[in-house]
Specification:
It is a single chain. The chain is α+β, with helices and mostly antiparallel strands. It has one domain. About 20% of the residues lie in helices and about 5% in strands. It is built from three helices and two strands; from the N terminus they run H-E-H-E-H. A two-stranded antiparallel ribbon has the order 1-2. Zinc ion binds next to strand 2.
Amino acid sequence: MPSCCHPSCKMNDLINKRENLRLKFYRFPTNHERKLLWLTRIGCEQEKFKIGWKLCSRHFHENNFDPCTRRLLKTSIPDSNTGSKLIFCKSMPGMQ
Ligand SMILES: [Zn+2]
């Protein structure tokens, strides 16, 4: 089951389907530098990275997607500010 590895995102495919959110989960780039860039953006240390990690589509701006195919562009980088406002966890403090 895909789940999002963003430190402040609890999204997984179960919630995605249950809430009908239509989110997608994206694998980290195979290119080392791009992978590091993604990790930096989400505030994760390189050493913690595990193969198979994915990010959900909530961490990418609209302009990171191909307008026709809706696929994530090769040049895309996660938005560094998405963490706090996109938390999908009702038990988090301040979220009711
Ligand atoms: Zn996420």
